[in-house]
Amino acid sequence: MASTSVSRIVPAPPQQVWNLIGGFDALPDWLPYIPESTALEGGRVRRLTNPDGEVIVERLVDFNEAERHYSYAILQAPFPVNGYLSTIRVHTVPGRDDVAEVQWSGRFNPEGATEEEVVDLFTGIYRDGLDALHKTLSA
């Protein structure tokens, strides 16, 4: 099983960051790669569409409001992986109440691609996503 993780300090207090990203259906609010999200099954499944019109379906598998994190599995996607499980979490930065650290991590099995290729793919997605989050919070 392959894995990757990306962290980024963003310019907002942890609760403000969580208020923006903590909703499972909130990706279009901060992630340009996902302009459309439809909540299904009472909000436990999200059907995402990327700018190319490709569909990604993900299921919420863990959610913790108090600790500010959630985990999800991919049910359907154009990615060369199976067994995908990802977590996004918001951390407090010790001694600072004006910034937060956001960590986005995932583990998965390559399918039809090398481990290096899929690690690079998701590292890029997470990095670009956290860069977009930083930009949104800086505006």
Automatic annotation (TrEMBL):
Gene3D superfamilies membership: 3.30.530.20
SUPFAM superfamilies listed in its UniProt record: Bet v1-like (SSF55961)
Native species: Streptomyces viridiviolaceus
Lineage top rank: taxon: Bacteria
UniProt-recorded name of the protein: SRPBCC family protein
